[in-house]
Each structure stands twice: as C-alpha cells, then as structure tokens.
Known about the structure:
The chain is α+β, with helices and mostly antiparallel strands. Helix content is about 15%, strand content about 35%.
Amino acid sequence: MSVISLLENQNSDIKGKPYPDIHCVLCESCFWSATSMLPDAASILQFINVCPICNNKSLSLIPLTMKESYKIMIGPRGLEMEFCIRDTPV
Length: 90
C-alpha cells in the first residue's frame, strides 16, 4: 500500500462526511506558519499565494492526517518542528 493510500485511509469518511485536507503551510524565508483545512493543495496556494509577513512566494505544504499535530519551536539550533499522533482526531 502506498503512502498516499495510507493517508487517504486515515482521513476516510466518518458518518458519510469526508475529513478536510489538513496542511501545515510554512514560509521558507521567515518561517511564518499556519494550519490550513481547505479542500486541497491547489486551493491553499490560491488562497495563500504569498507569505503575509515577508511577501515571499516560497511556501511549503506539509500534509497532515486528522490524528497528527505539530509544534514549531525556534531555539539555539534554529527552527525545530515536532510531529506527533493524537489519540482523537480534531
């Protein structure tokens, strides 16, 4: 089974309603970030096509499942991202 199939299975329907696609949106220049729940990656990039802080167009989309969360920290070594699995979906 492919990684994409696994993600689709984890985000499968509950009571006939599909989960939204969840992405962490990260600016590659200033490290501004946001969580997006728009329908797909193309919709995200249409809605957020530049960073609202530095106006850079280099935005990365990191797909998440409904059970994943993330934390971003800036420490002495630079930007650190921590991903973890929660017991209950959002």
